[in-house]
DNA sequence: CTGAAAGCGCTTACAG
DNA sequence: CTGAAAGCGCTTACAG
């Protein structure tokens, strides 16, 4: 009896050209052809019809156990693998999804997108799906390549990350009834799986206010992004709740980039040198702000505390390590993938998920300077650890998903 | 006359279910069906055979200009898009490549791989190829999914990044005659496109030695990697050339990670407190080393200079910004993609490319402390710029590719 | 429970 | 220069 996991055998010799007639030889008592084995050969060898092999392949309950086992054995013996082009051409599904990103330079090198992509790929792999990578460059959209993805049968669905209200082409998917889900973004009433930016902003501002900061700035980005607007809203509300009136001069656009974050921090500090804390809408802008503050002679966190959003892997290795709102981007990617498949199968017709965040307290935040000075005399100094420890705050892991 | 770039028209109404008989109506004088248009309908409308449409589609020179134009117009009018599953099933190519990465956690969030992936995707898009993402997890290899990529006709070729001599499964591609190219790695005699790590190491060590450093450490990684071995070789040779004997105690494995880099720096500095410069085999380890040095009370670069390899985007935004060997990873990905296509088409049967590097001088390097002290008195201080400037050294852009 | 046959939408010799 | 026909390798009603 053969072991359970018989590996497919490779017919290594290919003396015949691709167009030569299929030459079959008998070796080890098994029929082996020099070309790829197809379903017809399996059928012949197992003495059943091609239809039966197909049904076995697709685990149809209509096939008797005996027949199924016999066919299965033949499949293993011959090392048969169904041609997925033929499967998809005849069948309903391509078993592929596309990830569509904005037209940023070297977009796939961005750690934010990388987390989402990793989450999607891992989950897709487990579901038997392949993932292709696409970027929405202007010419791409003009040529309607995003719709072509479906029309030419490349994919069953698309996962979009990094888009906002301004990306009007997103509506094309809805018009074509093409399954599409936004990951970590909301646009109109489209399907989405997002991190809870409101909750994240609350967690960040609770920490900042608790540390005694009263002059708190916001480096925002892309007012076209619904999640970014939510952060701005919570920022205004939480300060108001603490008796601090909203001041537009304390907010600046950082364009989601490190350079933009540095530039925004510079404008803010020049306008309001009394700022003692800055909340940034992502880690890159937060790190850019730190960079500016340090090169302008300020100490982070003693002079100014910084809080970001994302919790990218290298944010823990910055100096100082970054206090930030952890966004479950990897999980959002995976969940979007799963829901998208259910959507493709018609099991659900609406995707709307909201994943909880938590704050990761690291070195870039401290007491407001005025409190810090008071506490200084009463406190002992401890050496900083080599590897930055992180403290998790406000985790809502009981799953308050919408 | 219709404009040149007529967009395909969508039959927006789908009152008929998917399985309803194909309903054709006439609107605007054009035949429009509620289902996807296929090649047969184009042929009927253009009053030619299906074969002719196919030949027009594939720009065969055997079709007369008049016929070609007429068919082309019908294609535009009907908004016909060939089903690529059918094209690939009948034809020779899938028009897809796979990117295969090692089984690291969240591998796609890694900026190093991200640069390579971006380079591949951009070039593949221009070549009309799609790119799918795969990860070589243990079970994946055990199930021979990497070979299945070809056997089940998912792809025409595979681009591998991040592997080394220990990844024995790479040989499977050669046995199956499956086109595969290694990006930024060499293994045995397999096809590859690499950055010139020898040149990079020379550029880094030239700079370090010129700054007067004599006690120079190396944080290496993966001796199974041929490129990493090359850096170690050049390190030993350049020091020897400068009259500094090789000392194993000055080298430590950093496992290619930031944590590993920090740990390696700690071991090195405890063993040899006199070290004034460290060369790390990648940026992550370099940034980890900086992190350790700073938290242990040392100043980078005044006490210890650090040089990395990669030039990742965020390395320019570290504090201090990182002096590093720029690896043309984006370009390597693109070139590998291009060569792989030539290999698939049988135009070449061997890929071996070597791309030049250059050093980017930033803030993490300075004169050796002893020289620095001497120079101190004679030098004026300048304030550091907000955005770190970079100085490019040793660029060999005249293309000395092997 | 299984088989014969039509069909998915293309490409590619082969004829003319 | 163009067409009729076979074929790529599957799936899916439809019969029995």
Explain the overall architecture:
- 2 copies of one chain form a homodimer.
- Chain A is α/β, with parallel strands linked by helices and 402 residues long.
- The first copy, chain A, folds into 3 domains: 59 residues, lambda repressor-like DNA-binding domains (434 Repressor (Amino-terminal Domain)), CATH 1.10.260.40; 100 residues, Response regulator (Rossmann fold, 3-Layer(aba) Sandwich), CATH 3.40.50.2300; 168 residues, 3-Layer(aba) Sandwich (Rossmann fold), CATH 3.40.50.
- Chain A is built from 14 helices and 15 strands.
- Chain A has a 7-stranded mixed β-sheet, sandwiched between helices. Chain A has a 6-stranded parallel β-sheet with strand order 4-3-5-6-7-13, with helices on both faces.
- In chain A, α1 crosses α2 and α9 packs parallel to α10.
- The longest helix of chain A is centred in the first third of the chain and has 16 residues.
- The two termini of chain A are 52 Å apart.
- Chain A binds a DNA duplex (16 and 16 nucleotides) through α2 and α4.
Mean pLDDT of chain A: 87
Biggest contact: A-B, 70 and 71 residues
Number of helices of chain A: 14
Our measurement of the CA-to-CA distance between the termini of chain A, rounded to an integer number of angstroms, reads 52 Å
DSSP summary, beta strand count of chain A: 15
- The largest sheet of chain A has its strands arranged as 9-8-10-11-12-14-15
Instruction: Give the H and E element order of chain A.
Output: EEHHHHEHEHHEHEEHEHEHEHEEHEEHE
**CATH C-level name of the largest domain in chain A:** Alpha Beta
Strand content of chain A: 15-25%
CATH fold topology of the largest domain in chain A: Rossmann fold
* CATH superfamily (homologous) name of the largest domain in chain A: Response regulator
Broad structural category of chain A: alpha/beta
The tally of domains of chain A stands at 3
